[in-house]
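Our preliminary data section would be incomplete without showing what the modeling component actually yields. Below, a chain of 214 amino acids is followed by its predicted structure, encoded as tokens that our downstream tools consume directly.
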Amino acid sequence: MQIGRTQRRRQSGPAPRPLAAFDFDGTLTVRDSFNALLIWRAGPFGAAWRAVSLLPAALAYLVHRDRGRLKAALVRAFLRGVSAEALSRDAERFCAARFDRLMRPDALERWEDWGRQGAERVIVTASPELTVAPFAARLGADRLIGTRLAADAAGRLTGDLDGRNCRGPEKVARLEAVFGPQVRLAAAYGDTSGDREMLGIAEIPSYRGFTGRP
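Predicted structure:
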């Protein structure tokens, strides 16, 4: 009898909210936000100097084709030793300064449309969660899933990634970790091959569906 009452309560509960997943860079934005933040933070001369130090990693990428390793090299060149707290503050300032120049108006319209439908809106990005977090907060995202940066006991970035680069199959793995192994998306939006697997679990997959510019 108790089991029957529990089942009836579950059946009479609210239906689950539809889940809409958006890639960030190139989908919601017109360009890569992480690179833009690093250049903004370092300044043009500082960015150019660090870019020179990245040449060996860029050449190595032509052989191993591992974007995670390339991203870790980028983090080491620009952010190793920086406190995660300081980077978060810089990301807030960057968002305040560049939000209107980065976001695609047609993507924002679709984002708001899903919000009006009561959907759970999730940003799933290969960019670091730390740097996308202010944008996600301003957009009213229900959840942010992104690449995590490793930090030491003092909270300073080590230059390594904490886990895998959130791209390709890892996007689906991270969604499954949050929403369960049977997760299905009402819609997914992306713009590169790194979004293919996420688009593959969506009822409405949209590849490069947004072209608007600020």
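The chain has one domain: 15-207. The first strand starts at residue 19 and ends at 22. Preliminary results of this kind motivate Aim 1 of the renewal.
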